Each structure stands twice: as C-alpha cells, then as structure tokens.
Amino acid sequence: MADNRFDGQEVPAHVAIIMDGNGRWAKKRGLPRKFGHREGAKTFRKITRHAKKIGIKYLSLYAFSTENWKRPKDEVDAIMDLFDKYLDEVRDFIEENIRVCFIGDRTRLSESLQRKMKSVEEDSKDFSAMTLILAINYGGQDEITRAVKAIAQKVSDGELSADDITPKVLEENLDTKEFPLVDLLIRPSGEQRISNFLIWQSAYAEYVFSDILWPDYKPSDLEDAVYEYLERNRRFGGV
Ligand code: IPE
Ligand code: IPE
Ligand code: MG
Hints:
By secondary structure, the protein is an alpha/beta fold. It has eight helices and six strands. Strand 3 (98-103), helix 5 (111-124) and strand 4 (130-138) form a beta-alpha-beta unit.
C-alpha cells in the first residue's frame, strides 16, 4: 500500500530519472570517479524503495548510455563490475514484489551480465508492486533505429504495409512497449538536457531539474519533484 503523504493526489504513474553527477560527487571529495559510481549505486537502492513506497508504478533509471562507452576503459570496466554486483543484489527487490526489466541493446554487454539480466527478468515477471526499468547501454536514438529496422523487416516480409505504420506501431516496437509513456522526468546534477534518454516516451513528460548530484539525492528530493509535478498543468496540446 502506498503512503498517503500525497493527500489522495495521484502520483505520476511513470517516473524516469537520469542518475547523473556521480563523477563530480567523487571529484569534489578528491576521489576517483568510480567511488562516485559506487555511492550512486547506493542511492539507486534507496530511491527505488522510496518510489515504491509513495505509489509510483513504473520507475525508469538511466544507468549507462550508448554514448558512455566513450569514457576511459577503466571507468567503463568499473561501472560494468558494479552492474554485475548489483544484479545480484537486485534480487532483493524480487522479494519486495518489484518487477525488474531492462531496456537498451544488451548485445554489447558481457555474456555473464546478459545471463543475469535475463534471469532477474524471468524471476520477477509476475511481481506487481512496481516495475523497475533499468536502462543499460540504452540510447533513445538507438532504440528508435532498432524499432525502425524491425518494422522495415516486417514490411519487407510482407507482414505490414508502409501505410500501416503509425506512432502506435512504432511504440509497439520500442523496448518500452509494455510500459506507459513517461509522466515525470527528473534530472539531478545541474544539467538541463535529456542526453538521449527515453526521447520518444518523454514527448509530453514534465521535466524537473535540480542541482543535486545523484549520490546526494534523497527520498525527500524525489517527493519534492513529485510535488512539483502535481502543480503542473498538463495539456497534451489541448486547452
Ligand atoms: C552518471 O554520472 C553515471 C553514468 C553516466 C554512468 P556521471 O559519471 O556522468 O557523473 P558526472 O556527470 O561526470 O558528474
Ligand atoms: C547521462 O549522463 C547518462 C546516464 C546518467 C547514464 P551523461 O553524464 O552521460 O550525460 P551528458 O554527457 O552530461 O550529456
Ligand atoms: Mg554525467
């Protein structure tokens, strides 16, 4: 049961967060960037649990982008090691009735990571308190390109005609096909950009930016963002 702190108001169904600022958090403390990622991973656990507590049904978290491979190899390796470790810990969420799913192109990830991802997804598929969507090697442009390729294949196989292609068909070919569109997109860390996260799905999302670095992000910051969302007036192009 969700906490009632939002006074009966409807919290956003789908919240997406760009977990940014780990490197700067470490730098401020004179530590190597990977310490920031380690700390950020702790925040990830806290915020996931809190999102469930306040009644959010879908939580998408941006963990690694298709562009993040540009980073130095030792940083990428440290992040991949953290995923490996956290995928074991993510099993705790299963006991908390949380369904865990992944979006992004997994083919570039290690076999061991891919195996763990698949087994967490399978073992949690019937859980319903919240769906946690982790974006690993995810890029919105890459996702849309893969969707277009899949649609083109159907057209060339004669399963679909070009005239049948609608936004709905495109949506059904995205990694997020099972999830609703994004209501609230949060970006901490001071940057005011989307960095290729859920670009199709956030077309009508509300955006909340803050200067807090991800390792410092607290459950009350998530609540503040939800309060801000509740004060917005969404029109979806209407009046
Ligand atoms: C986000 O933190 C984590 C990943 C992109 C993997 P950053 O590593 O981008 O931290 P900053 O933006 O450099 O502070
Ligand atoms: C976005 O952060 C990606 C993730 C948080 C996983 P970046 O740090 O990669 O984004 P830019 O480079 O500041 O746009
Ligand atoms: Mg960053």
